[in-house]
Prior knowledge:
Layout: E1 37-42, E2 45-51, H1 67-75
Antiparallel strand pairs: 1-2
Amino acid sequence: MHHEALSEALLGDTVGFNIKNVSVKDFASLHSPALGRFAVHDMKQIVDVGVIKAVDKKAAGSSKVTKSAQKAQKAK
């Protein structure tokens, strides 16, 4: 995906965006397809919908640790 700063998206444009700190689980194995669906709301309007088909799990401890989490671990 090419990243360009857009001030406005027109009807029919494809827009991608990054979302941080979202917990996602793979519900396809539970035979409940409705649980893998999501909607993005903005100003009380649905702006996007999608289906989570697969989740790539990271190795334990490979994620970033925030400064506040580091301070909390030092305090213990």
